[in-house]
Write a structure and sequence with these properties.
With 835 residues, this protein is an alpha+beta fold. Helix content is 51%, strand content 20%. The protein is built from 24 helices and 24 strands. The strands form 6 sheets. It has a 5-stranded antiparallel sheet with strand order 4-3-7-6-5. It is rod-shaped, with a radius of gyration of 63 Å. The termini are far apart. Mean pLDDT is 77; it is low at 702-710 and 800-809.
């Protein structure tokens, strides 16, 4: 079918309308999102109006029948705007077609509706095409389908056949076939451009959000280092003036010193040369030091040319402060860890058990093991038993949720018993158990020894109080027994009578038993530190020489005595007689510990005790001499040696020892303001060391020769008031004095004695010291107030420390229990005569 000029013009007209439609669509709706309701409704309205405009210039081969491209416009609305846009365009076009009238109006409306549905269907089909050929040919397919459908509908108009006017349909068909792909191309290209612009805008928005919301200082510079853009963080910090584009970055409002600004300039220019560079600068005018780490990176194009510079500035002030605090904390921890007096250690649970991770120098000293040997090893492998085993058991308990535990352990190290107070604390770990524990080990050996010594001293003091009380009562009994035996013997031999042999033997046996009981009582008093002592200046070296013969005879020929005497030994203060007895007791104990024989070594030495050592020995700081007696015998285990000074404690067979020898030594030395220590090792022997205080006067006292005194009868008329709370002792003393010719008044307590003193004149007061209620010392004071010049004689089995007197009083006289007739008579006579 030839194309005439009208047909070509019609085709050109339709194509021009399509181009105008494309332009208007891009102008009015190109910036809207495709999925938006405004885009869909706008597309439908625009395409509907254009369809009506095409109808007004359409070809009418038959009056009332219009051949135009409105169907293509409606179909395009469905394709590019979706079914809502196509429906709106169809409604607008249908209304316009009905308004124009004509016999073809109904078919036109049907054609428009079918075009909308066909456009939606073909659009759906087009989205399912995945091949390049399918996507390229589907607009042509849609145009052919629409052209054929429109021609068929035109030919199907009832009563108005267009067979004779087929030439009029040719321009319409050509417009659909050629114009629709053109419209699809134009709209598709425009839509692609719009989508690309939207994507670019979205990308820029995302970049801007990341760029501005970044907490670091960010900047974009041109290749010359001039500011293009600063992020919101930097703009906020520097102010609006700093964000002016075109300024060199190093000249913006950072408070930098001139040298730092120059360094920043060199860093930016180095990046402009294609080298990533950085520097660390400090703001000069900040209240607190603010440190910024600058990193400048070049951005290159595909040809390797620098097109932009990226700047990132990180505020490292807080990190630097935290690092400084961390270093300070680590230094403090290291100083405390390394210099604390307690042994500290860190243990972690690893494969194979608990292992040391760190120990401090104090723990090395306490354990005696070097750090290098401990790290990575198990406590049970390195520490003495049972310390290692017990620590691991407590570590297990601590790590499994006990939190913190504290306990004491004892162990032997290098032959010495040591004690630790251990504390363990688990560091926070997982929900089931901690994997790390820090512990401390304090050496409490000295404190433990002091505690044991205190407990021993308290025990000995309690036992001493008990034995002192027993000895006091026993002294009263012995006074009655020995005194009455003396009276019996005197009365039976009065007038020169001779005792029968059996009676004499019986009395003598009883007197010997009383003397042995008296010695036993003296030993008890010595232990309880209540025996009467007569301390004097003693040359310890000379005393050892004096008793050597006695010691040699006592220990026997199988024991060799070795003397190790320090030359020039200072003089000590002690009761020489009691010191000799103490040395003899120690020698006899040493002999019994060496049944096969051995060596007995007696050593003297001078010791100056500093406060710490003196406190450990329960002594006053100062100068002391020591007397050490050691043997090579069987020795004692620690649990036996701990009871060596207990009264009546003995390791000898029954009947071979009273158990009071070492007790007497202990009491004598303590009463002499000294100390006694014992050390013993099974199989190696025992050493007992006495500490005795030095005397300021370095000269030893000469022994006074005893002077025998004869019994003098009363000169007549003397009255003696005897006060004693033990009635048997009171009867004995009164009987002796009455036989000696004294006038005797008696009282069994202090109150009765004061009553007698208030009614009668008394020449002498003979009173016991320890009595229930009023003591003898208090009685004497009150008696002297009532009868000034009264002579007083005290009787006691204890030491004479009670006799504290002022400088104007006469020396107090004391008669020690148990006493007999002769000493009592001598003391009373001397008291009254002053001789």
């Amino acid at each position: 079918m030839p194309l005439d000029l009208p047909s070509l013009l019609a085709i050109a007209q339709n194509v021009a309308v399509l181009l105008v439609l494309s332009f208007l669509h891009d102008l009015l709706l190109g910036r809207l999102p495709v999925a938006s309701r405004r885009y869909q409704m706008g597309t439908g309205a625009l395409f509907g109006v254009i369809a009506i405009m095409i109808m007004t210039v359409a070809i009418q081969p038959v009056p009332g029948i219009r051949v135009d491209g409105s169907n293509a416009i409606v179909m395009a609305a469905s394709v590019f705007g979706g079914l809502p846009a196509g429906a709106l365009a169809a409604i607008i076009a249908s209304l316009g077609r009905l308004a124009m009238g004509g016999v073809g109006a109904p078919i036109g409306v049907v054609s428009i509706a079918l075009a909308a549905v066909l456009g939606a269907g073909l659009s759906w089909l087009g989205t399912r095409l995945v091949t390049r050929i399918g996507r390229a040919t589907w607009p042509l397919t849609m145009g052919v389908a629409l052209g054929l459908t429109s021609a068929a509908l035109g030919l199907a108009i009832p009563g108005q056949p267009l067979a004779g006017h087929a030439g009029a349909l040719w321009p319409l068909f050509a417009t659909y076939v050629l114009g629709y792909p053109l419209l699809a191309y134009l709209l598709g290209r425009e839509r692609a451009r719009v989508v690309a612009e939207v994507a670019l805008l979205d990308e820029r928005r995302r970049f801007r959000a990341i760029f501005d919301q970044n907490r670091e200082f960010l900047a974009i510079l041109d290749p010359d280092g001039k500011v293009i853009e600063l992020n919101a963080t930097m703009r906020s910090a520097l102010g609006p003036a700093a964000a002016v584009p075109g300024k060199p970055f190093w000249s913006i409002g950072l408070a930098l010193a001139a040298a730092d600004r120059e360094q920043l300039s060199r860093t930016v220019l180095a990046a402009a040369a294609g080298i990533r560079a950085g520097c660390t600068l400090t703001l000069a005018e900040a209240e607190e030091p603010v440190t910024l780490d600058f990193a400048v990176s070049p951005v290159l194009d595909q040809g390797g040319r620098v097109i932009l510079l990226s700047v990132e500035a990180t505020d490292t002030s807080q990190r630097i402060r935290v690092e400084a605090q961390l270093k300070s904390s680590e230094a403090l921890y290291t100083a405390l860890f390394d210099n604390t007096a307690d042994g500290l250690f860190v243990v972690s649970r690893e494969s194979g058990g608990f292992r040391f991770r760190e120990v401090n120098p104090a723990f090395e000293t306490a354990s005696g093991i070097r750090r290098a040997q401990l790290i990575g090893r198990r406590p049970v492998e390195m520490l003495p038993a049972p310390a290692g085993t017990e620590i691991e058991a407590m570590l297990q308990r601590c790590m499994l949720g006990s939190g913190a535990v504290a306990f004491d352990i004892g162990f032997d190290r290098q032959g010495e018993r040591r004690y630790w107070a251990v504390s363990l604390a688990a560091l926070p770990g997982d929900a089931l158990a901690s994997a790390t524990v820090i512990g401390s080990a304090r050496d409490v050996t000295e404190a433990r020894q002091q505690q044991d010594a205190l407990m021993q001293a308290q025990k000995m003091e309690a036992v001493g109080q008990m034995t002192g009380g027993i000895a006091h009562d026993f002294n009263n009994l012995l006074t009655v027994i020995a005194g009455n035996l003396d009276l019996i013997e005197m009365r039976l031999t009065r007038g020169g009578a001779k005792l029968e042999e059996g009676v004499a033997r019986t009395i003598s046996s009883a007197q010997r038993a009383a003397e042995r009981a008296e010695r036993l009582t003296q030993q008890l008093l010595a232990f309880s530190r209540k025996q009467p002592l007569q301390p004097s200046a003693v040359d310890l070296n000379a005393l050892i020489d004096e008793v050597q013969d006695l010691l040699t005879r006592s220990v026997g020929e199988t024991v060799a005595i070795i003397k190790v005497k320090q030359p020039g030994l200072p003089i000590c203060s002690a009761d020489p007689h009691q010191l000799e007895l103490a040395l003899l007791n120690l020698a006899l104990n040493a002999r019994d510990a060496m049944p096969e024989g051995g060596a007995l070594t007696i050593t003297t030495a001078y010791r100056s005790l500093r406060p710490a050592e003196a406190k450990r020995l329960d002594l006053s700081p100062g100068d002391y001499v020591t007397l050490a007696v050691s043997d090579t015998g069987c020795g004692m285990p620690p649990e036996v040696a701990a009871h060596a000074f207990d009264p009546f404690f003995t390791t000898k067979d029954t009947g071979r020892g009273s158990g009071l020898g070492l007790s007497m030594v202990y009491g004598f030395v303590k009463q002499s303001r000294g100390h006694v220590a014992i050390a013993s090792t099974v199989g190696r022997g025992t050493i007992v060391t006495l500490f005795l205080p030095c005397q300021l006067d370095r000269r030893a006292d000469a022994a006074a020769a005893p002077v025998a005194a004869a019994v003098a009868p009363s000169s007549g008329g003397e009255t003696v008031l005897v006060v004693e709370d033990d009635l048997e002792v009171l009867k004995f003393a009164s009987s002796v004095l009455e036989e000696l010719g004294y006038r005797v008044l008696s009282a069994d307590n202090g109150a009765s004695a004061l009553d007698r003193l208030g009614s009668e004149r008394v020449d002498a007061l003979f009173t016991d010291v320890v009595m229930a209620g009023m003591s003898g010392v208090e009685l004497a004071r009150l008696a002297l107030e009532r009868q000034p010049g009264l002579k007083v004689l005290f009787a006691t089995g204890y030491a004479a420390e009670f006799a504290q007197q002022d400088s104007t009083a006469e020396p107090l006289r004391v008669l020690h229990k148990p006493y007999k007739r002769l000493p009592l008579a001598q003391e009373i006579r001397q008291l009254l005569t002053g001789n």
